[in-house]
Amino acid sequence: MPSAHLGELAALGTATCWAVSSIAFARAGRRIGSLALNLLRLGFALAFSVVLGLVARGLPLPTDASREQWAWLAVSGLVGFVLGDLCLFRAFVLLGPRIALLIMATAPPFAALLGWLALGEALNLTAALGMALTVAGIVWVLATRPAATSPEGQVPRDRSFRTGVWLALGGALGQAGGLVLSKRGMAGYDPFAATQVRILAGIAGFALIYTAIGFWPRFRAALRDRVALRLAAGGACLGPFLGVSLSLLAVQHTETGVAASIMATTPLLVIPLAAYIDHERLRWHDLAGSVLAIVGVALLFLR
Questions:
Q1: Could you tell me the residue range of the domain that residue 15 belongs to?
Q2: What is the 8-class DSSP label of residue 17?
Q3: For the chain: N or C, fewer Cβ within 10 A?
Q4: pTM of the model as a whole
């Protein structure tokens, strides 16, 4: 029954939303830079959430959340949106997207470990096998894809490479920690309103960073790029608004490690989209790894 697998279905919806939004964000980021894009996408996501809050709950902002919920969810937003994303985007520069995403495949095991330590969640044998197969399929596809064409994808194993590895691990840990903190803070609270709290914390975090490094003039310049604004708005609707809200719904109804494993299939979903939109060639490694990951996801549904 779908209701029995609401968490898994929400996680699959999250991966789909993130796959589509990543293409929009990649194009917007090439125009205005990733740092400007981070705050811009959160601003659009907040606007969407305000409209939804008014229509669905009669509250434009999550003023009905308790102090404890605000505290946990705000920390979750800082860990996930600010710390995690900053680490990941910098890792993209130092390592290239292929290696960075490979290391990001450690997010599900991190989430399972943190969920066990902080929330007492334990995975049965079927769930553990499903998570392992899903992660293995993702790693197979990413490890066998051609290296990035940018020089960053060919970085030698020097200090920059080691820094990139640590930053990618920080991104994976930020994603996993953000999910666990969100689950701890929601406690039955509306996931869309909980996302608002996380977005507000993320906006505050980036505002402090912009002020510290004097980035506001460059951000104002980015606002003049109308194409980037349209791309950022579309990506924000599917990414930090709908996608993240679905991710909170997922962890609310299933184990954090299970949800993170299904959500980690985002790179696999990007491949057929890129093949259709950018005419990239599909390879047998893509299909084989995707099949392995699909088997893993199926086990997570059947556990």
A1: 2-302
A2: H
A3: N
A4: 0.88
